[in-house]
Amino acid sequence: MESAFLKQINSPKDLRKLNKKQLSFLARELREFIIDIVSTKEGHLGASLGVTELTIALHYYFNTPYDQLIWDVGHQAYGHKILTGRRDNFETNRRLNGLSGFPKRSESEYDTFGVGHSSTSISAALGMALASQLKGEHKKKHIAVIGDASIASGMAFEGLNHAGVTSANLWVILNDNAIGIDPSVGALKEYLLKATVDKRPLQANMIEALNFHYSGPIDGHNFEELLGAFAEMEKVEGPKFLHVITKKGKGLQKAEEDQVKYHAPGKFDKRTGELIDTLDKNLPPKYQDVFGLTLLELAEKNEKIIGITPAMPTGSSLKYMMQKFPERALDVGIAEQHAVTLSAGMATQGMIVYCAIYSTFLQRAYDQVIHDVALQNLPVIFCIDRAGLVGEDGATHHGVFDIAYLRCIPNIIIASPSNASDLRNLLYTVSLGIENPIAIRYPRGRSQDKDWRKEFKKLELGKSKTLLSGNKIAVIAVGSCVADAKKAIQKTQDPSNFTLTDLIFIKPLDLDLIKKTLRQHQHILTVEDGSIKGGIGEEISRIALEENFAGKVESLGIPDKFIHQGTTEELKDLAGISNETIKNKLISML
Ligand SMILES: Cc1ncc(C[n+]2csc(CCOP(=O)(O)OP(=O)(O)O)c2C)c(N)n1
Ligand SMILES: CC(=O)[C@@H](O)[C@H](O)COP(=O)(O)O
Ligand SMILES: [Mg+2]
C-alpha cells in the first residue's frame, strides 16, 4: 500500500508538520491501513473508520499528550493508536502480548484513561480537568470523545450534570452517527436527530440548559469544519460541547451499508468489503442463539414473557424476539442499571422477565441486582452472556467476576449450564414460574451440543449431574470448564480414576451429591471459569472442612490478577483451566 504521509508519522508531532490540505490524503491512508489490518486480524472496524478525520483533527489541533484526550469505550481508537507511535505493531492488536483493542494507560502516554466499558469519558475528563485547575494548569485541555449511544447512559449524564456547575477546561465531543452496535434508541436519540435535521430543538438546547457552551452540529468528515469549530470553542471558557455528525464505517461501502455487521465483522476482503465466511455451516450453535431462539419459542406460547437488553440485541440474540414481539422485547440502550430495575418493576406486576446482560456489563448494575431484585426476592431471570474468558476483548470484557459477586447475595439462584440443551431447559424451567431471582450464566462462543432443539424438559433447580464415575479423584466443574475437564480426564492414562460432576447450580449447591462425593473419593479438584477468589472452589473447600474430609481439595480458576487479551484457548492455558492444564493437575494429584 502507498502511504506517503502515514509512514512519516511516528507521533502527533509529525502530524502537526503537515499542512491542512495534506490531512485528507492522510485520512485516506489511515483508513486503508485500518481496513488492511482489520480485514485479516479482525477487531472493531466501523467505529474507527467513522472517526478517521476527527482523530486526525484532534491530534492536529490539540497538544496531545499534554492535553488529555479520552476516548469513550475505546473501540474507535485504532486511528489514535496508529498515529501515536503504534503503527508498526498495530498488527498485534488484540493478540496475546500485543496491543490492547482499547486505550490502556500502561500502553502509551497518549492513552490517558483505560476504557472498554462505555460512558466513563466525561467523568474521567472532568476529574482530570478539576485536578488540573487545582494544580494551576489552567491552559490544559481535557477532551472527552463520546458516541451517541454512550452519551445516553446514566453515567454520562452524571458527568454532564456535575461539569455544568464547574469552570473546568472540559471539551465534550459528541460523535453522533445515530448508531451504537445496533441502532441507537431512546428520546435523546430523537432529540439529536432533530438537532441534526432541522436544528429545531436548538431554541431549547438541552446541552446549553446544562450550562455547556454548545456548538454544532458539524460534519465530522470535514477538516475545515472540525478545525474551525475547535478554534471558535477555544475562545469560550468553561465546559463546552461540540456536536459532530459522522458515518460509522465511512470509506468502506459495505461497512457503511451494514453498520451492525461491520461493527466487528471478522475477516473480510479488504478491496470489496465482502465477509470471508470460513465457518462450517454445521457447527453447533452459539450460546447466545440458544438463548435468543429458545426465548422466542417460549414467548410465542406465553404472553407474560418479556425480554430486556441494554444495547446488545445482536450480541445477546434478543433480536429474534424483538423482531417478532417488539412490544415485549426491549432494547433500553446502554443502561444496565435501568435494565435491571426496569426488570424488577415488571416482575412486581407478574411478568416473566428475562434480562439479558453480558457478565462484564452487569458489574455496573450491582446495586440494582442486590437492592431492587434480590432484597425484594423478585423472580427476575438474569441471562448472563459472555461469562468466563471472552478472548480478544481482554481484561475489560472478561466475565470472570460474576460467580464471586453473585454468590454472596441472598435469595439468588445461580446456574451455569455446560451445554446448549441444559441452557435451553433451564430457560424453559424458569418460565414455568420461580420463587426467587435466578442468574443463568453462559459463555461466549459455541456449545458442543448440535442436537439441542429437542422437546423441553423440566430441570430440578439445585440438582447437579455426575457425568463420569471413578474411584480416586472427583472433578467438580462448572459451565465451560465441564467440557475441558472431560477432555482432560479422557487424556489421562486411566480415566476410571476420575469422577466428573457437572455442578450446573452454583447456588444452591447440591449438598447431598457433594457430601456423597467427598465420602467416596480420595481427593477433589474444582474447576471454574471465574475468579478463584470468592469462587466455588472456596465454597467446596469449606464444606469439605465441615465434613472432616481427609483428602485434599484443590481448585483451578481465574487467578487473582487481571487477564489481558488473547484467544480464549491461550488465556485458558495461562489461567490454568485449559484441558491440558487440568490434565496435568489431575496427574499430579494422583
Ligand atoms: C457499559 C457498557 N455496556 C455495553 C457496552 C457494549 N458496547 C460497546 S460499543 C457500544 C455502542 C457504542 O455506541 P456509540 O457510543 O454510539 O459509539 P459508536 O460505536 O457509534 O462509535 C456498546 C453498546 C459497553 N462497552 N459498555
Ligand atoms: C466494544 C464492545 O464492548 C463490544 O463491541 C464488544 O466487543 C462486543 O463483544 P462480543 O463480540 O462478545 O459481542
Ligand atoms: Mg454511535
Automatic annotation (TrEMBL):
Residues that, per the record, bind Mg(2+): D148, N177
Keywords carried by this UniProt record: Isoprene biosynthesis, Magnesium, Metal-binding, Thiamine biosynthesis, Thiamine pyrophosphate, Transferase
One Gene Ontology term, aspect cellular component: cytosol
Signal sequence residues: none
Keyword Magnesium: yes
One GO BP: thiamine biosynthetic process
Function per UniProt: Catalyzes the acyloin condensation reaction between C atoms 2 and 3 of pyruvate and glyceraldehyde 3-phosphate to yield 1-deoxy-D-xylulose-5-phosphate (DXP).
Similarity comment text for this entry: Belongs to the transketolase family. DXPS subfamily.
Protein name per UniProt: 1-deoxy-D-xylulose-5-phosphate synthase
Gene: dxs
